[in-house]
Specification:
Shape: elongated
Number of strands: 5
Radius of gyration: 24 Å
Order of helices and strands: HEEEEE
Largest sheet: 3 strands, antiparallel
Distance between the termini: 73 Å
Number of helices: 1
Strand order of the largest sheet: 3-4-5
């Protein structure tokens, strides 16, 4: 198994790692609600779950009567 003969300096290590950067996530605008969301992800808006402009699920709010 190969081993380095000399220790690599922190400068050389950091130069190599500069190429791995977090990219800015692409956002899509919902055609129905106008809400910004991640591509291919469902998103909540006013108690409803939307995916591709359609309502997939509604949040159930149960009220307790006293």
């Amino acid at each position: 198994m190969a081993h380095p003969k000399r220790r690599q300096s922190s400068t050389r290590r950091d130069k190599r790692r500069t190429h791995y950067k977090a990219s800015v996530p692409q956002l899509a605008k919902c055609s129905t609600t106008g809400e910004l969301h991640l591509f291919h992800r469902a998103h909540w808006h006013e108690g409803k779950l939307y995916y591709r402009g359609k309502v997939v699920m509604e949040k159930n709010v149960e009220e307790v009567e006293e």
